[in-house]
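Bench log. Compound arrived from synthesis this morning; before running ITC I wanted a structural hypothesis for how fructose -6-phosphate sits in the protein. Inputs:
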Amino acid sequence: SIDTQNMWSFLEAFPKQWEEARAQTEEIEFTIDADRVRTICFVGMGGSAIGADLIRAYCYDSCPYPIQMLRHYELPRWVDEHTLIIGCSYSGNTEETLTAVDRARARGAQAMAVTSGGALMLKAAKEGFDYIKIPGGLTPRAALGYNFVPLFRICQYLDIINEDEAEALEETNQLLAEQNGLLANSEDNEALSLAEKLDDTLPIVYSDSTMLEPVNLRWREQFEENAKTLAYGNTLPEMTHNEIVGWERIVHLTGRLSVIMLVDREDNERVKQRMKIVEELIKDQTASLHLFETRGKSRLARMFSLIQLADWTSFYLAILNSTDPTPVAKIDLLKRKLA
Ligand code: F6R
């Protein structure tokens, strides 16, 4: 028997988590000097990186200065006193994140942290930089609401996200609650029927490379961590300049590859056309091809509409594979070996 209870309850409670994070961060105060910031560098790994990746993609065309996502110990040369480094680690003990924050601070960068505790929280408390303590006890990828909403607030404080966009947090909450009703219970369950079609295939996710890039990544990470199924993905337009040719020599895999195309009404018009042509060129070789369009009004709601579908689909795929979606034994083993 497999324990599906944990992941099921995390997914079911996700709208509640979002609402809690929204309410708890409404009045939050920061001490960093926003005028000194010329660039933001988020650092985090895995389930803690995805929230930062989403906010970076959300702001890609509104932030007046560069936002970098870092998943490494090492820093780019340009990190200096005008950089704001934001360490994101659910446990607070991820060594890449801790190292990068230390190195950035040694170069005079301002720092902030979003964490449930661990060494990162102690460091912030000891060294006197802003941190947001989020509730602990979840697996990091299930804490996406707690991870993401504080980053939204930080961007509001920095004036990258303006006041009226705060409504997007509420709209997203409503949409998540409505969709959850369908994805957790309904007979006509989109996530479950997708999982059935994906079973025993390698899922490949394609999307535009702007705001949907981290959504695409979330699909793959959730297949890998929840369903323990290798997944692959790429973005347009780049894949139409190379990868599309790679489909010529995979005839032996015909019927073993499923393609999931993620689209949004804001996608670049030429990218939309490219996506249609890619679909025509590869569809005969796929076990199944699925096109999902974002739902909702605000950009935020639209991004999270497809994240939620990914989360539930990977959950059902785990169940179909008789796998417990919650534990990630290989990640734990690797961390132990490195200790
Ligand atoms: C996701 C997961 C990993 C961790 C990653 C970093 O559920 O377990 O992807 O998120 O190893 O650890 P934290 O999030 O504690 O910094």
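What the model suggests: The pocket of fructose -6-phosphate is lined by residues 45-48, 89-91, 94, 97, 139-141, 225, 328, 331 (CB under 6 Å). DSSP finds 13 helices and nine strands in the chain.
ITC booked for Thursday regardless.
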